[in-house]
Amino acid sequence: MAKRVTGPEIEKLIQLLAKVPGLGPRSARRAALHLIKKKDQLMGPLAHALGDAYDKVKICSHCGNVDTSDPCTVCTDDRRDQSVVIVVEDVSDLWALERAGAMNAAYHVLGGTLSPLDGVGPDDLNIKGLIDRVAKGGVREVIIAVNATVEGQTTAHYITDHLSGLDVRITRLAHGVPVGGELDYLDEGTLSAALRARTAI
């Protein structure tokens, strides 16, 4: 049995940090030690920031984004084209698309994908909110930007089926060869998708 080298407070900090995606037990120990060494510059401000986030962060009732206001900053931005809605699995996908800065559209966060094996059905996701949003009118295009996984494809088909009776254009993100990608290193599924989605030049 390993000997304890720190007090329970530090052990708890390490255990909690280890639950953050991308941090394992060893990385959590290094992060905890760094925070402790920089107690005044990092740990104090981080504790305050976490407290503020805990108190103020909300889920947007309109699109499912996380923010400190409801409706969120994206939904209340007058410069966005609210008639184009990009459907994403998670808030991290919304942030990734915003970093790319390719479109100035609205978003709808599903909160995951359909996965019958994991017990995730349509009622567990924000799909009804999307259908209601489109049914109200004012949305001319829905861009389905889910991951190219089996669950993502299943979710995309389900959404497409349920929006098909409404007056809205439904599009998907293109799948295929990434910028800078070499054909020899791509898997067969990606190459097949790229060939099916080929465009004229």
UniProtKB/TrEMBL annotation:
Limits of the Toprim domain: 83-178
Domain of life: Bacteria
GO molecular function: DNA binding; zinc ion binding
SUPFAM superfamilies: Recombination protein RecR (SSF111304)
Cytoplasm as UniProt keyword: no
Keyword annotations of the record: DNA damage, DNA recombination, DNA repair, Metal-binding, Zinc, Zinc-finger
CDD domains in the record: TOPRIM_recR
Family that this chain belongs to: Belongs to the RecR family.
Function (record text): May play a role in DNA repair. It seems to be involved in an RecBC-independent recombinational process of DNA repair. It may act with RecF and RecO.
Protein known as: Recombination protein RecR
